[in-house]
Amino acid sequence: MRIGVAGVGRIGTMHATNLAALDQVDEVLLFDPVPGRAAVASAALPGTKAVDDLDALLTASDGVLLATPTTTHPALLRAALAAKVPALCEKPIASDLDEMRALVDDVEASGVEVLVGFQRRFDPAVFELHRRVRAGEVGDVYLVRAIGNDAQPPDFGYLPASGGIFRDLLIHDLDAIPWLVGEPVVEVYASGSVLVHQAFADADDVDNAVVMLKFAGGAHATLAGGRHDPLGYDHRIEVLGSKDSLAVGVDARTPLTSLEPGGPVVADDAYPGFPERFHRAYVNEMTVFTQVVAGEVANPSPARESLISLRLAEACEASRRSGAPIRLTGVNA
Ligand SMILES: NC(=O)c1ccc[n+]([C@@H]2O[C@H](COP(=O)([O-])OP(=O)(O)OC[C@H]3O[C@@H](n4cnc5c(N)ncnc54)[C@H](O)[C@@H]3O)[C@@H](O)[C@H]2O)c1
């Protein structure tokens, strides 16, 4: 099959590389409006070919991956729907809730498969955690704890358009944790501070945040996220239940030093960033995308479910600003 990639920037180049390595992909087509960018990327990547415009990309592709700036996602996704080409769109598929709701309605009316690039859903360890929780192997879930720290802050010029720490960074766990627990969220409380750099305050944002989610059945989740970790990129999830206690993201590369005798110490090759930490997830995401395109598996990350994380991110932002918890009437898509 042939897969098109629109947007050959940071994440698009990584996805194109992973797609080109798959046996079931005959060719990866690249399009980027910056003159020469797709041709340069294609010259460096065997199995790819640059095309001149979006129409050429959609006409020649069995599936299209949208790895462009978030503001361009709704228009590009609608072009894919009109061309009847299944798509994997990077998260978020739209930057505000009303726009996303309208887009999700259009996706469903079209009958075209659209996957959202929340890579935790494709991570083998997180997927196994999900399977065990949903199979009852953990028993009743008492508590979920997630931590997600960038190693270094993003370019400060990126901050004003980022949407803030909840829409930009914590959104991944705001997607993954309700998906894991499988119950509506009934209450949200969030708090944040500027501890890393004044640039976050100047952008009306925070650089460290904590979120509490309460689920309909009474279980809680705490999510913590920050923009600087001197030891590396750290993402972990722990689930404590009545039968078992499980963790993902705890391995020889976790940027953490234990003070216990014989405990782990930070490794020289601690994860430097999200591409390394989630390498297996990104490779698997491309495999699953091709399987959805071929009609072999169900879509594990549908557009409608991505409404949940944006709704929660907006509630987190409102809670941080007001200092009060927010009760929700059960957040599901
Ligand atoms: N899932 C993840 O882990 C993850 C990580 C990083 C970024 N993202 C998401 O991926 C998207 C892209 O982020 P990035 O960091 O790669 O951005 P980037 O700026 O590095 O790359 C975007 C590319 O898209 C191109 N582009 C712009 N408009 C286009 C259009 N209309 N058609 C085709 N190409 C177009 C740009 O020229 C650029 O080359 C964002 O939505 C971001 O939120 C997801």
From TrEMBL:
GO terms for molecular function: nucleotide binding; oxidoreductase activity. The lineage of its organism: Bacteria, Bacillati, Actinomycetota, Actinomycetes, Pseudonocardiales. It comes from Umezawaea endophytica. Pfam families: GFO_IDH_MocA (PF01408), GFO_IDH_MocA_C3 (PF22725). It comes from the Bacteria. Belongs to the Gfo/Idh/MocA family. Residues 128-246 form the GFO/IDH/MocA-like oxidoreductase domain. Keywords: Oxidoreductase. InterPro entries: Gfo/Idh/MocA-like_OxRdtase_N, GFO_IDH_MocA-like_dom, NAD(P)-bd_dom_sf. Residues 1-118 form the Gfo/Idh/MocA-like oxidoreductase N-terminal domain. This is Gfo/Idh/MocA family oxidoreductase.
